[in-house]
């Protein structure tokens, strides 16, 4: 049976597939709005959400994540990754305070493996992890009026500069990246009103348009298709503030520290465009049969083709060789600018 929130989205004319809103009746116009940089409003309730309570929550996450989890105690949303012992990213995530504890947001297809792995490390610590996706309604805002829309949704006059604002209608969390973007987290009883207030400032769009906006912000979303493929620096987590080199030990930390101290990395995240349809996890090839990288996040473009974030070998991405996606040698990739500088270029 459909939940009240699903019924609300249905009344708004949403078209859903696999639990995600694809559009609100005009997919092409929504993609065009995203491409034009308009203020967007998108349902994010399909994403995985874990909540954690107990007296040792932050010290627990401090030993599990690439970033300083203790900053969440002051209301700062913490972008981070959870790694394998070999330093490979299992999933990227956002840690932030919520209700009486803390919450972790990440790609929905990593819910079971990440929840299982975190619980395995809890041992005797006073930490209780709960799958909370059904407990909260979540939607995203990005664009020039996103801050005003977020304030309206939460019922506040201004957002907390720390990054997490608890209002009477909802909690607002600042999302990572150089462009204004927010997640609104509301109880089911207040979610419809929060959405309606935000909608006065923003256009409702489906997941493809939201992905396109986040790609243009240069923020990757690492899920099952790319799990264990990259080290954190290769997906630009350093540029996005998702790595702390001073916080102390965590799983996979030796590889991250070694990469930093050895200097220039061999691969990093680029923004690209092609006439082909791209998917997360898809390989990218250069001349010959050797893979030169892999697509992390992709979205369709209004006039056809795709825009994506892809991890590519530097020598290939910045050289003269043509790069093409797996399965379509006639659709070369074109490099596009990211809205931030690479770490080594600013040193």
Low-confidence spans: pLDDT under 50, at least 5 residues? none
CATH superfamily assignment of the largest domain? Probable tRNA modification gtpase trme, domain 1
Mean pLDDT: 95
**What best-fitting shape do the alpha-carbon axes yield?**
globular
Care to count the β-strands?
19
Helix- and strand-based class? alpha+beta
As laid out across the biggest beta sheet, the strand order is 10-11-12-9-3-13
Helical content class: 10-25%
Query: Which percent range describes the beta-strand content?
Result: 25-35%
Give the count of helical stretches. 9
Q: CATH top level of the largest domain?
A: Alpha Beta
Main sheet overview:
6 strands, mixed
Task: Tell me the number of structural domains.
Answer: 2
What is the terminal-to-terminal distance? Answer: 55 Å
H/E series: HEEHEEHEEEHEEHEEEHEHHEEEEHEE
The CATH architecture of the largest domain is 2-Layer Sandwich
Indicate the CATH topology of the largest domain.
Gyrase A, domain 2
Radius of gyration: 20 Å
């Amino acid at each position: 049976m459909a939940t009240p929130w699903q019924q609300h989205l249905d009344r708004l004319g949403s078209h859903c597939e696999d639990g995600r809103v694809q559009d609100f009746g005009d997919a092409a116009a929504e993609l065009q709005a995203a491409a034009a940089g308009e203020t967007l409003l998108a349902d994010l309730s399909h994403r995985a959400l874990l909540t954690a309570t107990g007296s040792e929550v932050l010290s627990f996450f401090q030993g599990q994540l690439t970033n300083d989890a203790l900053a969440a105690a002051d209301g700062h949303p913490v972008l981070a990754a959870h790694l394998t012992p070999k330093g490979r990213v299992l999933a990227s995530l956002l840690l932030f305070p919520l209700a009486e504890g803390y919450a972790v947001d990440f790609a929905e297809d990593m819910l079971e493996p990440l929840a299982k792995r975190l619980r395995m490390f809890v041992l005797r610590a006073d930490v209780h992890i709960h799958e909370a996706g059904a407990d909260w309604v979540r939607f995203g805002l990005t664009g020039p009026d996103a801050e005003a829309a977020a304030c309206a949704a939460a019922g506040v006059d201004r957002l907390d500069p720390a990054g997490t604002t608890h209002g009477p209608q909802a909690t607002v969390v600042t999302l990572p990246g150089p462009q204004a973007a927010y997640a609104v987290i509301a109880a089911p009883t207040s979610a419809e009103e929060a959405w309606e207030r935000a909608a006065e400032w923003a256009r409702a769009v489906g997941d493809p348009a939201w992905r396109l906006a986040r790609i243009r912000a240069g923020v990757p979303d690492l899920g099952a298709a790319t799990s264990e493929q990259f080290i954190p620096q290769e997906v630009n987590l350093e540029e996005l503030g998702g790595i702390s080199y001073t916080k102390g030990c965590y799983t996979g930390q030796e590889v991250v520290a070694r990469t930093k101290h050895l200097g220039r990395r061999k691969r990093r995240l680029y923004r690209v465009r092609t006439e082909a349809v791209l998917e997360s996890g898809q390989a990218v090839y250069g001349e010959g049969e050797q893979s030169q990288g892999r697509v992390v996040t992709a979205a369709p473009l209004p006039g056809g083709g795709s825009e994506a974030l892809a991890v590519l070998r530097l020598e290939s991405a910045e050289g003269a060789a043509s790069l093409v996606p797996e399965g379509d040698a006639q659709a070369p990739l074109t490099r596009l600018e990211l809205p931030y500088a690479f770490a080594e270029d600013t040193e």
